[in-house]
Amino acid sequence: MLGKEGRLFVLGYALAAIYEGPAANLRHNLNEVVASLGCTVELQINNTRAAWRVSTAPLRAVFKGLLGSKVSLKAETQNLSKAFEDLDAQVNSEMGYSPEDAESPERTARGVGTHRAPPSGRHLSTQKMYELKTRLRCSYVVDRAMLSCRHWFDRKHERCMERVRVPLLNHLLCLPMKFKFFCSIARAMEVWCRSRIPVEGNFGQTYDSLNQSVRDLDGEFSATIDLKEEKQVAVLGLNTSWEHVSAELRDLVRRQEAQLGWTLGLLRVLLSCTFLLVLHASFSYVDSYNGDIRFDNVYISTYFCQIDERRKKLGKRTLLPLRRAEDRTVIFPCSPFVQASETRDVVRELAETLPVLLLLLVLCGLDRALYSVFNTVRHHSFLQYSFRSSHKLEVKVGGDSMLARLLRKTIGALNTSSETTVDSSNMRCLPQPVSLNPRAYVRAVLPVGLLLCLCLLQAFGYRLRRVIAAFYFPKREKKRVLFLYNDLLRKRAAFTKLRRAAIVSRAQRQRAPRHHLADVLHRRCPLLRRWLRRRCVVCQAPETPEAYVCPTPDCAAVYCRSCWDDMRRRCPACTPREELSSSAYSDSNDDATYAE
């Protein structure tokens, strides 16, 4: 429970605390930002729509007024059409002249035919046609006057002949009644008809425009307002509204939350079964303890010390105190410190816990940074929208004629006035970030801190495994301790042969004369003696007053007292290999008996 399996159980609580603390708060703040962005865009769209409606309200009111006065406008246009019928009949009338007389050869010979009606294949404008008709009417009046004059002379001649019955005298007296040539004086009026015809120059254009207007007024009066909305595609191939994008984003966040919740639920279920791993690890340790004598056999127990003490009384070689190189491979169970062989496992477990710690620090830092940013945005992004619109248009149409009345009913509809004020703000769209309270931080940090403490306590907890197993299997424990003691004896006996090259190399480095300054500093500066002292060529322990210096000339190798005893009081640096090997062989025969 104090080892790797127990940490799995604590790891579940740590992940759950991280998820429920900074991770959940981070997700909540991000959701607030997403909702704030959607609300802001929707608010802008609503404000734009309201401004457009307010701006177009006067125009829509004008068109509604025109549509409301449809019946009265139609009655006025009918009256105008009836009034225009007389003018139209007068312009299109053929009264006042005779087209047959105008096209006769006799009138053509007299010069009147220059103003006759045009042939059927030729089209003239209204202005030219009306001028031609006016000239023909003028010529027609002159011709009728001359004809009437001749008839008057004829009647007067007949009456004169009836009154004077004397032959020859009546012809003489009635001769002036034969002077019909005086009637030709009226032909001088034709010159006036050709040069001073009373028709304005823009009569035809005005008539055509008025005629077209009257015809248009005769049609059905209607008005409709068509609004066409064009949506621009923000991304090629994507034609979706912001509401759709916002809804999809919220759905994605909800799906991810659901998946994360499901994953955490599954993780909790799996972590709730960690007691099975604890049982499995316990049974595995017991099996390995009884099956492999080398498994976890590195403890210097009380029985180990008793064996060494008994051998010391018998005068045999002992192991305690252990050499510096041997301390790195064994564990003293009662030591309050983490020892060298345990440090590697502790560092590895701390490295495995480091990702959880980094995850906690990153999430807490990110949550705090995002909260600061969102809180700053909330306090400095408040906007007040104020839209004011005023409209006043007045059109005055004077007069009492039919056209004036018509204009008052059409253009007069533009007489509108309005004043609108729209005030809004983005207060409801600002993000509402939430900050974690200190209690939430403590709840998230405590499991991770406990996880780190378990990593440090694992070394001490694993020492208890051997103690518990030894309590239930005491005979097996004695065998394991004897095996460890004998194994260390064999290794120490073979140490000289295995490490002779390294010992010789160190002795050669010590053989080199030391600088005079180093000797002076060694004598005068006690604080520097720790670094200036020579070291044992076997175990690299600092030189002490009890240290042994090889008396062989040009050797001067330094040995601590225990290492000198282990070397059988022979210096491997200056002793020949054959002599050292034979000595080691005889010594090994003397110590062939191991602990029992």
UniProtKB/TrEMBL annotation:
The chain crosses the membrane at residues 440-462. Residues 536-575 form the RING-type domain. Keywords: Membrane, Metal-binding, Transmembrane, Transmembrane helix, Zinc, Zinc-finger. This is E3 ubiquitin-protein ligase DCST1 isoform X12. It comes from the Eukaryota. PANTHER family: DENDRITIC CELL-SPECIFIC TRANSMEMBRANE PROTEIN, E3 UBIQUITIN-PROTEIN LIGASE DCST1. It comes from Acinonyx jubatus (Cheetah). Residues 95-123 are annotated as: Disordered.
